[in-house]
Amino acid sequence: MTQEAVTLTIDGKEVTVPKGTLIIRAAEQLGIEIPRFCDHPLLEPAGACRQCYVEVEGQAKLFTSCTATVAPGMAVRTQNSSEVVHEAQVANLEFLLLNHPLDCPICDRGGECPLQDQALAFGPGESRYVEAKRTFEKPIPLSPLVGLDRERCVLCARCTRFCDQISGDRFIELFARGAGERVSIAAGEDFLSPFSGNTIQICPVGALTATPYRFVARPFDLSSVDTVCPHCSAGCNVKLDVRRGKVVRHLARDNLDVNDAWLCDKGRFAFRFPDDERRVTIPLLRDRGLEPTSFGEVMDAIGDWSRGKRVAFLTGGRLADEDAYALSKVARTAFVTNDLDHRREFAGGEAERLAAVAVTDRALSVTYRDVERAKAIVVAGLDAEQEVPILHLRLRKAARRGARIFVLNPRRTRLWDVAEHVLCRPGQEAHVLEQIVDGEGGDSGVGRAADALREAGEAGVVLAGMRLAEHPLAADVALRAARRTGARFSLVPRRAGDKGALAAGVHPRLLPGGRRVDDPGERAEVEAVWGELKNVVPGRNAKQILEAAANREIDVLFLVGVDPLRDFPDARLARHALENVPYKVVQSLELGSLEPFADAFLPAAAFPERDAHFTTWEGRAQRIRPVRGPAGLSRPDWEIFAGLARAMGGSLGFESLEDLQEESVGLLSPRAFSGGASAWVGAGAPQWIDELTLFTYPLLVDEGRLSEGASELKAALEEKPFLEIHPVDADKRSIADGGEVRVRTQAGQAVVPVRVTPDIAEGSVFVPFNQPGLAANTLLSGRFTAGATVEAVAAAEAAADPERLTVGGGP
Amino acid sequence: MAVLSPELRGEAERIKARYPAGRERSAMLPLLYLVQSVEGRVTRDGLREVADVLGLKTAEVEAVASFYSMLRLRPTGAHVVSVCTNLACALRGAKEVYAAAHDAIGSHAEEMTEDGLLTLHEEECLGACDAAPVVQVDFANHDRVTPERMRELIEALRRGEVSEPSAGRAPRDFKEASWILAGLGDGA
Q1: Which of the 8 DSSP states describes residue A332?
Q2: Is domain B79-172 given the CATH code 3.30.1330.10 in the classification?
Q3: Which ipTM value was assigned to this complex?
Q4: Cα–Cα separations (whole angstroms), residue A444 to A219, A383, A441, A447
Q5: Are B44 and A188 in contact (CB < 8 Å)?
Q6: CB distance A174–B63 less than 8 Å?
Q7: pLDDT of A661-689, one tens digit each?
Q8: Does A184 sit within 8 Å of B58, measured CB to CB?
Q9: For B6-72, which CATH superfamily applies?
Q10: Alpha helices, DSSP H, located in A100-165
């Protein structure tokens, strides 16, 4: 792409920039700082604060450099070389400060405030204003997370522009434009955006403040570290602020390759879990009860239980890459087992291998930049706002740049205003994708998606969420859809450790780098580093591990950062498994619901205590850095695995993180995905056995363990349990919106408040996975979908029902 | 309770359909006048319903509604008396006209009389400076108003009569004026 260049001078210095560049950006390139408040490089220009005045030779009036673009030969003078500009800036700052309180000593922003800093650098020392300043209620709560100290606001409109241009949920606006102008929210409503915290971070004054941080710290009290958010596979770059050893704040760091400058509210506000009072930081061993002990004794006991026995490992997508690698190695070398898994979704057979290999294949990868520049995007089986929120913002950015977006999902997502949705029943995705591959569909969403992908060619992107990984062939067909049109394809796992765990081979069939354990050639590449593997038969996946455990075919079960009772889509199976395994080893931050079952507990170091990597959904490994040492006796997971290897009489072959990284780097480099996309059979139209298909996935803010202690976040954004049903299905069953329904599956039943909505595919019902009062895994049998019946519950019956869940209200 | 009856909801959809696809937001002002014609002002529920019709957030609607002085968010009398006090009118005696209106109405500007009949509004400019001082009753212009004429206009409203404006037809009351502004009146 050739772009016309423009040469101009600023303060007499020559600079050449692309046509269309704003003067303020050109000045930045010369290292000339022009004061500004409303300007933000990722928001469209507003010219609202009037602080960035410059003089342009030959022009009668001053320009706002954040709205004026460069022109050839332009001679710009900033405050550095123009007395007029200097005076204008001083006057403007005095104006902005007319009503601004001088309460910096008690303001959260004091010490890191653009207004404070620039008033010092560019402003008048004193104000001539002697009248009373405006006052307002303090703070005005926009939500349980965001407070507005309105008297501090300088009306730069950064917050409202963010909601308009970036997150697309315009909960806040400028009201009463004119002399009484103010940022406000509609009366009686809450700022319910899962991105609301970004408005606080980009507020150039202390007007928007975060409830969890209000009056908690001064900037000079904090020690900080640059790291990566642990909550999902988005990999947002964050700064962790710690006061007296406790994490008190997450802020977004700018990284235009990953999160731009944004964070979701979970990433920003769910930071208390490492300091949760339920955390256990000493090893425990069951004697009469769970007794505190030393690492040495626990390791010895585990060694005694495990030698020559049937051992299995479950983990939950929260491990860092190094930990996953150590787990993969310790399981296979020291415990001689291939029964290890990090997943919860299974398609079975070849599709499972595709899903796994595709994840490690860089040729199949998609980056945030690819999404941003794409002309056509198909998003299948993924509710990005809830599951990978920053990807959601990137999809919105792509839409603003003209991409055509199609969402194939059983439920409408918050991309509804920028994407065409094709609602399809869970399990039907493969069938619909097949129509896209074949260019069928004519004048429908499917047809338009096929056309858009074909027209886009290499500028097309297909993103498949992990829900597709549960349906045989769906991921396969998604890949085929991409290949047919030249589009880029990626599976998008949900959790921060998912991609790293797959790459490391925390998988019953796959070794590091996607190498098959039962393929001698591929295995040899791993054996060259690990030594000969004694067990070369593919092992059991997570569901099969729990089934084997329930059937007393497992002697020792390691639960590493996972709680099958809460995380696995079959609560009853998980319980049977735990009841029938002689020895359960829990390695985590806390015991939680596993307390009655654990025979040994190994305390793991938490995310802010770790030096390691997380790999984003794109396949980008990013370093996480410690802000403090491991709490108590806790240790990094990889160190615990190294200890376990020693307890089993062997060694992992590395004693330091550097050695581990050096060893793994060669093995983790992915193999290209070879061969056609598995045995191709037409997915065909699905056959319905059950009347309705219940499906579930976790919402962003739920009872997940990493949200523990995030009370303000939950107060703002956590929903009570609900069931969504299509009006057609509701009418057939005389179900009225807002009432209660009883949902029954083979696994269980529950009474839940119902929402009747056309935003769900006919024939489907949705229940969120883990809202307070209803764990949806009590309704599931190992998959995230289930056949279900739903019936209306009369209010009286509901009240009298002893099995009724206490949902939707207080005591 | 919905502000718009099912019939009026249909009317709202027809108003929305006047604008091209993707530009439905342009229907916001007529829709706000429509809900104002029902309740005599724009209530919180009215804002929500307009947002609902247009697929917008309530804040986006309130941002617009709070800008225009012809859209009234506070309790408002059956008739709104607007007195221009801007420069041209002020030079021609608008202060005295305003004082007369204030005395005759007996409540503060922007408030509603206890009987719910009248609201006094101080307006910035009514765009008819050649006829200064200008007064509007329910958005119908009265030219060259004297304090005496101001009192007569208000007494007429108290008797249930609407005086002839200087041009055109007088709306029956503020609600009908809003109905006309929504683009629904016969003489619109």
Answers
A1: I
A2: no
A3: 0.89
A4: 55, 21, 6, 5
A5: yes
A6: yes
A7: 999 988 876 554 444 333 333 334 444 44
A8: no
A9: NADH-quinone oxidoreductase subunit E (1.10.10.1590)
A10: 114-122, 158-161
